[in-house]
Amino acid sequence: MSDEPLLEVENLRTTFDTDQGELIAVDGIDFSIEQGETVCIVGESGSGKTVATESITRIVPIPPGEVDGSVRFKGQGLQSIDDEALRDIRGDQIAHIFQNPQEAMNHVYTIGWQIVEGLKIHQDVTDEEARAKAVELLDRVGIANASARFNDYPHEFSGGQKQRAMIAMALATDPDLLIADEPTTALDVTVQAQILDLLNELQDEFGMSILLVTHDLGVVAQIADRVIVMYSGKVMERGDVYQIFEEPAHPYTQALMKCLPEFGGNAGGIQGTLPDPTDPPDGCRFAPRCEHAASDCTVGDQPAEIEIEPGHLASCIYYQQGYDSSVVQNDDLGTNANERTEAADD
Amino acid sequence: MTNSEPILQVNDLKKHYPIKRGLLNREVGAAKAVDGISFEINPGETVGLVGESGCGKSTAATSIIRLEDPTDGEVIFNGGDRQGASRNGDGTHPNDVTRFNKRELKRFRREAQMIFQDPASSFNPRMSVGRAVSEMLEIHGMKDKHRRRAIVEDLLERVGLSAEDYDRYPHEFSGGQKQRIGLARALVLNPDLIIADEPVSALDVSIQAEVLSLIDDLQDEFGLSLLFISHDMGVIKSICDRVAVMYLGEIVEIGEVEELFRNPQHPYTEELMSAIPNPDPRDRSEGISLSGTVPSPTNPPSGCKFHTRCHKVVQSDEFDLEQEAWQQLLTFRQQVSIQGVDVDEIRENALLGRSEEEITDSVLKSEVRKEFDLPSELSDREAEKTLDNALDSIIADDFESATETLQSTFTTPCEEIEPEFTDHGDGHRSACIRHRNEIQSMELAADD
C-alpha cells in the first residue's frame, strides 16, 4: 500500500435547511484513517458524530443535508463521483453497521436472504456460493448452528444475535472500512463485551479499518487506536488512545472523563446543554459550559487545533502562545489519572 | 443495619405467566419470570437489582408495586403510617401489598412511586409537563388549582428546571430534562419509596452522571428509599448501598455494594462485572466473557439455573479436566441432546479443499471437535474414551446413544443440586454450590 491514508476527510461540513434556519451539524472537520486502524469518534448526543460518518458515504438522513468538503477514499474523491459509482463503494468497500439492528433489517426477509442480497449486488457469485459464504459468515460472527439459523427471520434473533448478523452482512463483501455507529449502545453490557471482542477479533483477521462512533468512553478505551473528541460539530481534541485517556488536554474531554463511574462518576455530569446548532456561540463552542472559560474564549471562531505532542491536538486557547496551559492541564481527574501521571513522572 | 423495621420486605415473591394452548385454553406451562425472590429495603437505603435483559428484574419491580398481580409471595410495605404492624392471627400481614384492597392500594400508590426507563414514552405529548405532574395531586384529592401549580413549580426548580417550564410540552425537553420531570412526577406526592427501572439507561454518559447525582441529592432531601434497577454494574456501583444480582427469576447474590464489588462470590456476578468496559486503554484483557444469552424462563435449566453458562461449573468427582474443556464438554453434551450437531454440514465444510476419500471418520471427528471448541484430546483417559465413543455414534447418526453415553458420564453436581444461600458475613450471601462444598469439606475436616 502507499503512504496515503485509507480515508482522508478535509473540511467536512454538513448542514440542514430547517425552519429555524441553517442547522450546522458538522462544521468543517478533518480526519484520516490508516489501513487496519480503529478510530473512535466520541461525544455527547447531538455533537454531530453520527452525521459526520454518514456524510462520508452521503447517507445523510432526511431532510437532505448539504455535504461540503473533500472525502478521499483510497485516493479517490468521493464527493465528486456520481451516485452509481458511490453505491458500488458503499456496502462493498465501506460498510455500515448501526445502533439499532432491528431497524436496519427488513423483517419480512430471512437473515440469510439479506446477507445473500448484499453479496449478489456487489460480487459475481452464484446462489450456492453466496449461500455458503453467508453461512460461513454467520458462523464466524458466532451464531451457533448457522446453517439452520440462515432461514430465520430477524424477530427470531435476540438483540445481540441481530447485531452479530448485521456485522456478518457488513463483512460479506470484505470491506476495507467498517463504519460502526454506536454498535453496542442498544445491547446489554454482557452482550456489548461479546460484540467488542468480536470486532477486535475480526479486525485482526480481515485487516479492515474501523471507524466507531460512541458516547461511551469505556468502549473507546477497549477498542480504539486513535480518538477524535467532537462537540457541537467541531473537533475538540484528537490523539492516540493513551494520550486522550492519560493526558486529556481539552476541558471538554476532561469533563467527559469525570462522568465515568471509575473517576468518581457522581461528579454531577457536565452542567448545561449543547449549544443550539442553528445558532452556535462565538469562540469556543464549549466555552459556555467550560469552568476555565475566559473572555477570550467567547470571541472569534473555534480556536485552531494546537499540537501538544506529536499526534495529540487540542482546540483550546490555553495551549496557544501567550496563555498559561497549566490552567487546564493539571485538572484534578480523580485518583486513577493522578496516580498514573505520578507514576509516569517518576 | 439498624433495629428499625425495613420499609419494604419482599418474601418469596413469584410471578409466573401461564402459557395457554389449544381449544380449551388449557394451561400447558408457565414462564417463571420471577421465581421466589426475597430481600428488604431499609429506610433511606438504595438497593440495586442487577441482571441481564430477561432475568426478570423489571417484572420484579412491577409485581412489587402491583402494576401486575404477583402469583405468590408477600410484599410488606411499612411506609406511610403503617409502621409497627404485626401479623394477623392467620399469618397474613396487614401491610402485605399483594392483599391490599382498592382503597389501600390507592393510598399505597401515593406512598410508592415508579420511574421508567424511557422518559420520552412515559409522558403524554399533548399535555404540558406541569399538568402531567400536577395531575397526580389532583387524582389524590388536591382540589386547589393554584396550590397545585405552586407545588409543581417549586418541585420543577428542585429537580434543576425552572418554574416557567410548567407550561412547556415534553418535546421541548432533552432526554435528561425529561427524566428530571419524571423525577418531579415521582416526588410530587412525597412518597417513601421509589422504584426506578433503568432510569438512566437511555441517557448519554454525561447526562447519566447528572441524573444519578440528582437522584442521590433528592434521596437525602426527601428521605427516600430506593429500589434501583439496572443492567449496568457501573451505575449500580455509583448509587446503591446494597445490591441483589438476579438471574432467571432468582437472586443469586446479595450484599453491600462495596463488599460485593471487592469480593464477588457468585460466578455470574464476576462475569457481569468483567463485562463493564474498562476505561483504561492499557488494560484490554478480555476477562471472563459470558457466552450465550439467558435461557428461556419457560424451561429453565435444572439445579443451578446458571450452570449452562458458568465458567466455574463444578466437575463430577471422577474428573479433573481443564475447566475450559469441561465447560465445552457440557455445552457439547447439551447440543447433542437436542441434536444440534449438523454432521452433514460439517462434512460439507470439511470437503472444501479436500477430496471425498480424505474425509475419513477420524477427520470428521476432529472437525466436530473443532466446531465445538473441544480439545483434540482430553487430559483424562476415561473422559477421552467416552467422548470418542460418543463422537463415533454421532457420525453414525445415532444421537440417542451418543446422548446417553455423554449424559451418563459427564454430569455436574450443579445441574442436580439446587444451590442454597451461603452467608459470607455482613448480609453478603450467594447461592452457589461451590461454597456449600467448601463449607462441607471444612466441616468434615473439623469432624476428623
TrEMBL record, chain A:
EC number: 7.2.2.11
Record key words, sorted: ATP-binding, Cell membrane, Ion transport, Membrane, Nucleotide-binding, Translocase, Transport
Ranges where the ABC transporter domain occurs: 7-257
GO molecular function: ABC-type nickel transporter activity; ATP binding; ATP hydrolysis activity
Annotated organism of origin: Halovenus aranensis
GO CC term, one of those recorded: plasma membrane
CDD domains noted in UniProt: ABC_NikE_OppD_transporters
Enzyme class, first EC level, given as a word: translocase
GO biological process: peptide transport
Classification via InterPro entries: AAA+_ATPase, ABC_Ni/Peptide_Import, ABC_transporter-like_ATP-bd, ABC_transporter-like_CS, Oligopep_ABC_C, P-loop_NTPase
Catalytic activity: Ni(2+)(out) + ATP + H2O = Ni(2+)(in) + ADP + phosphate + H(+)
UniProt entry tagged with the keyword Repressor: no
Topological category with respect to the lipid bilayer: Peripheral membrane protein
Pfam families referenced in this protein's UniProt entry, alphabetically: ABC_tran, oligo_HPY
Protein name: Nickel import system ATP-binding protein NikD
NCBIfam families: oligo_HPY (TIGR01727)
Gene3D superfamilies: P-loop containing nucleotide triphosphate hydrolases
Subunit structure: The complex is composed of two ATP-binding proteins (NikD and NikE), two transmembrane proteins (NikB and NikC) and a solute-binding protein (NikA).
Compartments, record wording: Cell membrane
From TrEMBL, chain B:
Keywords tagged on the record: ATP-binding, Nucleotide-binding, Transport
MF terms (GO), sorted A to Z: ATP binding; ATP hydrolysis activity
Spans annotated as Disordered: 273-303
GO biological process, one term: peptide transport
Domain of life: Archaea
Gene3D superfamilies: P-loop containing nucleotide triphosphate hydrolases
Domain ABC transporter positions: 8-273
Family assignment from sequence similarity: Belongs to the ABC transporter superfamily.
Record's protein name: Peptide/nickel transport system ATP-binding protein
Taxonomic lineage: Archaea, Methanobacteriati, Methanobacteriota, Stenosarchaea group, Halobacteria
